[in-house]
Amino acid sequence: MRKFSIILTALLAFTLIASACSNGNSGNGGSKGNNGGNNNGGTNTENTSEPPAQEDITQIKATISIYYPTPDLVEARALEDDKIRRFNEVFPNVEVVKSDWQYNPNEIGIKMAANEAPTLFNTYATEGKFLAEKGWAADITEMFNSYEFKDQMNPILQDLFTIDGKIYGIAQRGYPTGVVVNKKLLEDKNVELPPFNWTWEQMLQTAQAVSEPNAGISGIAPMGKGNEAGWNWTNFLFTAGGDIQEVNDGKVTAIFNSEAGLKALKYYHRLKWEANAIPQDWALGWGDAVGAFAQGRTSMVIAGPDGPVDQALNQGGLNPEDILVYPIPAYEQGGKHYGVLGGDFLVINPNATQDEQKIAFYYATFDYFSDNGLESLERNIQERVNDNKYFVPAVLNYYKADSEYGQKETELFNKYDNVYQYAQETLELIDGKPESQYNTQDFYGTMTNVIQEVFSSENVNMQDQLNVAEQFVQEKFYDTIEP
């Protein structure tokens, strides 16, 4: 791969954009007046004036607000601060404002209406179609198609924000949801590690064997409140062979009230009432469940792997050899290890000016495929060595894993003992299934109510719960979608 400075990359990309936007009447290359096709009866129409200078994108004066990591993500903030410093060296007239707003689907409409949403904000994989249809994500198709490295972006992630042929977001990192296992806790309790190619039954048996309710230790901590609960459960819907919805001729139909859906719900019921393997206080959100894992109060948590691993290593005091990442277990031996495919994306505010949108795009991709980005990452890893901290990579990144840049980053990771390495068996087995594009967060929230009923009442009628949930999702959300 050729090495370009970030300034050259910026100028090249936006030169292409400027060319693409030309209407052919300026007298520059491509104008009919210069190719002999129309000379007005022999009159010399060649434009001999100097062509206008191309815009120097680095000299634009603008203020952009950006997504800034939460205070608990100290190392991530350090990386962002370094990026801002280096970005301002190239774009000296841009003020970068750190936004403390974290994306929330229940707040984004209010933020947009009040013109308070950041210029560049972080969101997750389910939101592409929602934001595009609401007009809350800028159409960046032209900028993206002029981006030099667009063909090296990871299509598994980037395609999630390609809606009806238009591009509305920039992939950052992603994951198929997996299961993070406290290997040390299992060994301390003399519980045999399950195979990576495990099944639902093996997960249940392992969780039951580790669970010690009187000591406040659970075998597994499935999330039980917020939309996270429905999200966790959907992994089992997928591995049982089910799905959330189907779309035919623009009509969206709920299909989770199925044999697979009932199997997944019964499995949750078994974890609670047969195995007694979940926390007594099971109403845990993402932070609660991941915190319980980091503190050694549960042996397993279901999530995008890098988050729980990072907290366990850097806040919980565990060592890399104490933690294993597994794929979601298959329903039965030989089945698929589907995990809900999720990730982090950056979206540009459509209310921003054209200059602000251009700058936001360049800020988002500033370190992409860049040796400067690798150097910054290496400095961050080295600082973590000095602080006895670990770096945990994402399972999936914005670039293709087999790209030259991907190989460079892998070589960098292999240089340091404080970079967490995922087991090769997991990387070979783990499989991602994209979230549905219509009202997925609403579906998750609805299923959270069902899951809470299952965890609250041993005698709950699970089929009735699914019936009611599917009817609600269909009538409240899917029937309102116009084909």
TrEMBL record:
SUPFAM superfamilies: Periplasmic binding protein-like II. It comes from Paenibacillus septentrionalis. This is ABC transporter substrate-binding protein. InterPro entries: Bact_solute-bd_prot1, SBP. Residues 27-54 are annotated as: Disordered. Keywords: Signal. Pfam families: SBP_bac_1. Residues 27-40 have a biased composition (Gly residues). Residues 1-20 form the signal peptide.
